[in-house]
């Protein structure tokens, strides 16, 4: 009886195996209880890799002319910036909401993929019907927060920037004057995370202006770590309402600024980081006069060429004859910029460049006691 039972069980197992039989020649089945599993490794077919597999000679690369042609074609297809239908959608669905949020006491921060310059310029035209609008292109390396504050003092209140006061104190004074006005001002900052605006003092100044009830701040950010610019107190003063806008527009305006903008419109071969090499080529007298101008500019002082020359001669930094040569040299290098009739002379760079590159060099050259 026991032998018959074992024979019946063996026959049942054979029938069961037949149901899972595979026609593949290389497939093997193993019994796992009542289930079947393919022997994965035995079913794989391996072949020896040839030397040709390790070569990239078979990959055809584009030559220089072909690459240039493709890039030109891509640029031509994106000349219009923000697609018209996307711009129309934002104008119809969001502009009124954004304006109401501004007037409710919030400031607007725009993030997202694509350049936001064209979109915010269109939004600024809507706001211009009710408020004064100032556009600040923060991606330019020559942007100066002190210059912006001085410009607001002059244009809105016909006053000169108070001298001898820090940037923080000047922003507080400006906020007090704005609070007394019936008509506000809207500042649209394209790339508030731009390289010229990333310093802690500059961002603190922006936050002090942002908390003024008569100043409406609209800003865009492009850097992935832009939020790290602000600490908790600054974020509270900004009162941001964040909006994600994917314009899909190329960053044409932002990436065209490859020079250091000292040439003011000319083709410039030098980058911002190359200023230090130009400084090394200057004579000690030229360097001293440039640093004096930079120190006065950081204090908020606006000097004419005559005032600059008088002070440099008084402190024996140069003679009147040498000043004429100094002016020529610094202008040729794009280190200074003079207005018409020499009414104002300034260094056409942001505060961070003056502090970290031009004035920091002075600390290195000073004799140690």
From TrEMBL:
Q: Origin recognition complex subunit 2 RecA-like domain: which residues?
A: 87-244
Q: Which GO terms describe its cellular component?
A: nuclear origin of replication recognition complex
Q: Where is the composition biased (Acidic residues)?
A: 17-26
Name the principal localization, coarsely classed. Answer: nucleus
Query: Which GO terms fall under biological process for this protein?
Result: DNA replication
Q: Which InterPro entries match?
A: ORC2 (IPR007220), RecA-like_ORC2 (IPR056772)
- Chain segments carrying region Disordered: 1-28
Query: According to its UniProt record, where is this protein located?
Result: Nucleus
**Highest taxon listed in the record's lineage:** Eukaryota
Which portions of the chain have biased composition (kind: Basic residues)? 1-10
Asked whether the UniProt record includes Nucleus among its keywords, one would answer: yes
The GO terms describing molecular function are: DNA replication origin binding
Q: Which UniProt keywords apply?
A: DNA replication, Nucleus
Q: What does this protein do?
A: Component of the origin recognition complex (ORC) that binds origins of replication. DNA-binding is ATP-dependent. ORC is required to assemble the pre-replication complex necessary to initiate DNA replication.
Q: Which family does it belong to?
A: Belongs to the ORC2 family.
Q: How does it assemble?
A: Component of the origin recognition complex (ORC).
Official protein name in the record? Origin recognition complex subunit 2
